[in-house]
Amino acid sequence: MRRNPEPVRTAGRRFTAVVLSFGLVGCATTSPYIGIGPHPQISRGRPQPLVDGLGNVLGLFAKLLLWSWKVDLHAVSPETEAWLVRYINSVPPQQKAFHDTRFRLNEWAPRDDLRRWRQNSHVAWPYRLLDLPWFIVLAVLPVGHLLGVDRYDPTTNTVYLYSDHPAILLHEAGHAHNSSTQPHKGTYAFLYQLAGIQLFEEYHASERAIFFFTATGDRHQEFGAYKILYPAYGTYLGSHLLPFGNIPGAVVGHVWGRLKARSRARYYAIVNPTPLISSSPSVSPAAAPQPATAPPATAP
Fold it and tell me: What does pTM read for this prediction?
């Protein structure tokens, strides 16, 4: 019995549409700015319903692992972007490497990334060459964009953001911030591959994000940060300890983060029952205090 060729043709047309949509994104990646800005360091990709929808499907495992639909959403809301702007504006202008960082919101821009890779004066060329294969796979090819990998790439000094969660955005911005404070940025990026350095860096970036919410007095975002960043850290720790340890690590992180949020809620109920501000940030340059270079330990 002959098979109906129409489903095959339909699948072929859909695949072609995906490829063409990637090509269109690569040719003209930035639409007229539709966020809260414009901000000179932030660029926003064109909405591509087919590609973004497929990216959401491919991100289902990460959504389940961190128990949030906002993970790998391929759409960053202006409200979430507002927190990123506040963080950027809180960093002193003397930290030039951080203020050279590009923040891409659901944007695939291989030509501009190649230019930034060539011209990045903050990381020496031998280190950029060492990371070239990963750079090609995640930035030049559409793999990283389709998978929605939130990350900071020191070889281009670029942060790629796909999740619509303020804590995740500030965590990745924290990587860029921490890198900007290192005297030998390429060496530090290379050492990040070591398990101990990676775990320290991930912990430090999360602490930066949590400290920022604590300093601004936004308890809603602070508690949400515990519940998303602790399980995310658990995936790193678990994967270093066990094969497929990211799953039990995330489970432990969920428990740990929720216990931490409850502990902080009890602490606030005793020492300061009235929140300092609402959870809807304004976008002024002095909207929040400057995060400390090394976030201090918070009360339990």
Answer: 0.82
